[in-house]
User: Fold WD-40 repeat-containing protein from Bosea lupini.
Amino acid sequence: MIRIVLALFALAFGSHVFAQELRGHGGPVRAAAVSADGTVALTGSFDQSAILWDLSRGSAIRVLRFHQGAVNAAVAVKGLGFATGGEDGRIGLWRGDAAEPAKVIEGHKGPVAALAISPEGGHLASASWDGTVRVAALADGTARVLEGHQGPVNGVAFAPGGMVVSSGYDASLRFWPADGGAPLIVTAPAPLNGVVAAPDGEIAVAAADGRLRLFGSDGTRRAEIAVGDTPLIALAISPDGATIAVGGLRGQVALIDRKMRTIRATLVGPGLPVWSLAFLPDGKQLLSGGADRLVRRWNAVTGEHVGAVVPRAGEDALAAFQGERGAQLFRACAACHTLTPADGNRAGPTLHGIFGRRIATAPGYTYSDALKGMDIVWSKETVARLFEIGPNTYTPGTKMPEQTIGAAEDRQALVDWLEKVTR
Assistant:
């Protein structure tokens, strides 16, 4: 009977039998891409690493550490391997399982949020929070810079014929002609995140109002599909263009039949933000990555999770400190920082053992050069000062989001609590 079940599984999912989940990242999984033959995947995380995976075994081939900041974007590059884009504004081109990038592309002045490869594989487009899109020729590195967005550019895609499409926080969708002419600009009712292009030229874009919007390559509005009431932050399209997968902040992932304009299935995950989606080449399987630090595998036909039943959002690590003001304040930090050595680093370093530790010395975490040169030892006084005047003022060059705690008693409550729980 077991052999029969395994045979049926192989028929349904192809010749590769994959592990249920890919585990290894220390922070939310922000990016995912799959090789053209479906045997290898690359994921990027807020923990500043990318991981190259052997999908046939469900195991990591190599952990890639290059970016100084979150790895926000990944794409498979024909004939090379993968490209990654980071918070540091750099793009790394990775050949095979090499430990260092074969080539580095620079030029952006802000985080790279999305990458796309041209159909012929010769050009790489990158969208950045510096408000620009750059289209780089992989052969010689020359780049065409597309300017016009009023704010962060969150998505980029190549449409048939060489047209580049970009989507931004300014709620504009821009169609950039291959010949370098002025773009066609379409404005949406809400800020826009990811964008993808189907083989027939139709464009799909995910919006902050929970809607997926479809456009023709000439900018005509074709359809609007309500997916949820929170921002849509992850988007992928199957290679044949038949299915669109879109994910949001509350963990919902909808599989949309593009022809019928309907939600065919909803993936039931752990209820945490889904940041990345990637189809396998046959379009029958889907990878998702999110805030729980896992890469999950789905049947993209039925919407069922492959493997064990997916639990709902896990135990609240701060539940034991209910009623403590310091724990309440720390909730704003918990997405990026852990408190115990077992939990390791996330987008920021673990805070275990922070008091008495010199800045930029937590093991296993990649710091910016600006922080490495500072003469700060973390104490209750220095941590309180950090939140009194803000990270950008106290530690210039930090990747930490700007935040302050105005009340002295709240700063004291936070550092007293941290002293207790990080020993």
Observations:
- The radius of gyration is 22 Å.
- Residues 1-18 have pLDDT under 50 and may be disordered.
- The first strand starts at residue 21 and ends at 23.
